[in-house]
Write a structure and sequence with these properties.
heterodimer, A: mainly alpha, Ferritin, B: mainly alpha, two-stranded antiparallel ribbon, 13 helices, globular, binds fe (ii) ion, phenylacetyl-CoA 1,2-epoxidase activity (chain A), Phenylacetate-CoA oxygenase subunit PaaC (chain A), Ferritin-like (chain A), Ferritin-like_SF (chain A), PaaA_PaaC (chain A)
Chain lengths: ~290, ~325
């Protein structure tokens, strides 16, 4: 093992200066704050779709029935398609050059803006379905509101995505009901999933400065305003499924400096990206 | 092709046939389609179940080698295309299990036979997918070989199988084009990408040739299946067609086919080429290919881990039916 001093970079500022000189980057004028926040918000939309789509795609060929293999692949496909639209627009708004692929493949975990809920490991199929249901109910309410966004590009994407997500919700709600009110084992698994995931639902409705700016511009609703509709859907489905959410649960990602929307993720996201970005990282600049 | 070494039942000469069997054979000879409710010889039914079942199993096990790269696809567009492809393969499995069900065998029975090792799937899916170029090679060569076999099967004598093949073939040719498109990108890319493409070609060429199965020109099983029009061409005919079609495509990509003896034979109007190593083929069929354990293991695990899910849905359906019944009683 080399001695510690060998491993210490001799002169950081000198190296940084050299790297800057070699990079040939032209200084880009900073976009106005509104555009930066808009792009940030678009990345939240795109990253939720990308990471949940990634998780769904992990089931390909391993689901408990052929119909589920097909449904999950289809859902993943919808989400990846939506991610292309949201991140494509984010890149356009950001105007730093590049496209949806650059955002998906060349940002590190700290720049990802997805909710913690969607990056959690799949667990058993019950956990995957419960996560999908809790997110679908939120996603659908959000997209419905976005159809009347003041930004026509957002409204167009939402109109397309809303149809797909309505179907996702119909499917996940139906399965949650059937499995919750199925056998003792299926009930227990769905209940365990609900209890665990409930702590990650609060983040969906926590407003921050970016959300406020979007609401002020009429681009998107404040997340907190979606909570009542979400609760209505979720309560109705869980009742029918004979499942009960925990009376009180710690909510991750809201208090303190943590939370996916701020780029402070669970340990799981790094592994998703290590896998997802491997080829782009190993062969920089190659076209595929 | 997705059905290899399918043993047919029967092989009767005309003198040994009953009048019913003769009438049945005449219908086939006239090009009529046989439909599920109609009389058919037991051997025809059993052979078809084996063949369609093996084909269905190949589609679902075939999700795995490509599924292996979905989470690592290099662009969002490639990811979407690959997802769509793997989803299609699962759909093909579904159509084919449905076609088999019309012959009186359930999907669960067929899956039980797959899981216990009593039914096979195509040898090709027991090879690993090691680089992104393998997604190209699989689409181009594996789906390409499958199409060779499945296009003629659109004319097969059994109605539901024929209709399943017509739907499947449309999607398979799309898969092949997508695979070739990946290869084009790789071959016009960086030296590393080109090397990956050549390496994929090297690894998949002979396993692709094996997909057609060993020569069956003297096989009684094949003769019977051909008389029944559940097999349309011999394995050698299809393999030759595949080689003749593929060589120019490889040349266009600038890839070398890993066969020093490959050359154009003017007289036969086709290429001469080396046979694959059939001992390797039989080893793979016997369960000793590089990925047999992983592939079958993954399917068995998916099935076993999913038991609670399937049981839960069944239990709910029963409960719901009971509730409906008691609601009806209450109303009366
Ligand atoms: Fe297929
Ligand atoms: Fe296939
Ligand atoms: Fe295919």
């Amino acid at each position: 093992m080399p001695s510690l001093p060998d491993m210490t970079t001799p002169n950081l500022s000198e190296l940084a200066g050299k790297a800057l000189a070699e990079s040939g980057h032209v200084t880009v004028p900073a976009p106005d704050a509104g555009q930066e926040q808009f792009s940030e918000w678009l990345q939240r939309m795109g990253d939720n779709a990308l990471i949940l789509g990634h998780r769904a795609s992990e089931w390909c060929g391993h689901a408990p029935a052929l119909e589920e293999d097909i449904a999950l692949a289809n859902q993943a496909l919808d989400l990846i398609g939506q991610c292309q639209l949201w991140l494509g627009l984010a890149a356009e708004v950001e105007a730093k050059g590049g496209d949806a692929d650059r955002l998906a493949y060349l940002r590190d975990a700290g720049a990802f803006r997805n909710l913690l809920l969607v990056e959690l490991p799949n667990g058993d199929f019950g956990m995957t379905l419960m996560r999908q249901f809790l997110f679908d109910a939120f996603h659908h309410t959000l997209l419905l509101a976005l159809k009347t966004s003041s930004d026509s590009r957002v409204a167009d994407i939402a109109a397309k995505a809303e149809k797909e997500v309505a179907y996702h919700l119909e499917r996940s709600a139906d399965l949650v009901i059937r499995l919750g009110d199925g056998t003792a084992e299926s009930h227990n698994r769905m209940q365990a999933a609900l209890t665990k995931l409930w702590s990650y639902t609060g983040e969906m409705f926590a407003d921050d400065a970016v959300d406020q700016a979007m609401a002020d511009a009429g681009i998107a609703p404040l997340p907190s305003t979606l909570k009542a509709a979400w609760e209505k859907t979720v309560t109705a489905v869980l009742d029918e499924a004979t499942l009960v959410p925990p009376a009180s649960a710690w909510q991750h990602g809201i208090t303190g400096s943590g939370g996916g929307k701020k780029g402070v993720h669970t340990e799981h996201l790094g592994y998703i990206l290590a896998e997802m970005q491997f080829l782009q990282r190993a062969y920089p600049g190659a076209r595929w | 092709m997705y059905a290899q070494l399918v043993k047919s039942e029967g092989s009767k000469s005309r003198d040994e046939m009953t009048p019913e069997e003769i009438a049945f054979q005449e219908r086939i000879d006239r090009g009529e389609k046989i439909e599920p409710k109609e009389w058919m010889p037991e051997g025809y039914r059993k052979t078809l179940i084996r063949q369609i079942g093996q084909h269905a199993h190949s589609e679902i096990v075939g999700q795995l080698p490509e599924g292996n790269w979905i989470t690592r696809a290099p662009t969002l567009e490639r990811k979407a295309i690959l997802l769509a492809k793997v989803q299609d393969e699962a759909g093909h499995g579904l159509y084919l299990y449905c076609a088999a069900e019309t012959l009186g065998v359930s999907r669960d029975e067929l899956l039980e036979k797959l899981h216990s090792g009593n039914m096979k799937y195509s040898s090709i899916f027991n090879y690993p997918t090691l680089t992104w170029a393998d997604m190209g090679a699989v689409g181009w060569l594996v789906d390409g070989a499958a199409i060779m076999n499945q296009v003629p099967l659109q004319r097969t004598s059994y109605g539901p199988y024929s209709r399943a093949m017509i739907r499947i073939c449309k999607e398979e040719s799309f898969h092949q084009r997508q695979g070739y498109d990946i290869m084009m990108k790789m071959c016009s890319g960086t030296p590393e990408q080109k090397a990956m493409a050549q390496d994929a070609m090297n690894r998949f060429w002979y396993p692709a040739l094996m997909m057609f199965g060993p020569s069956d020109k003297d096989s009684v099983h094949s003769a019977q299946s051909m008389a029944w029009k559940i097999k349309i061409n011999t394995n050698d005919e299809l393999r030759q067609k595949f080689v003749d079609q593929t060589v120019p495509q490889a040349e266009y990509l600038g890839l070398t086919i890993p066969d020093p003896d490959l050359k154009w034979n003017e007289e036969k109007g086709g290429y001469d080429f080396s046979e694959p190593d059939w001992s390797e083929f039989f080893a793979v069929i016997a369960g000793n290919g590089p990925c047999n354990e992983e592939r079958l293991g993954a399917r068995v695990k998916a099935w076993e881990d999913g038991a609670w899910f399937r049981d839960g849905l069944m239990a709910h359906a029963t409960k719901a039916e009971e509730r409906r019944r008691s609601a009806r009683h209450a109303a009366e």
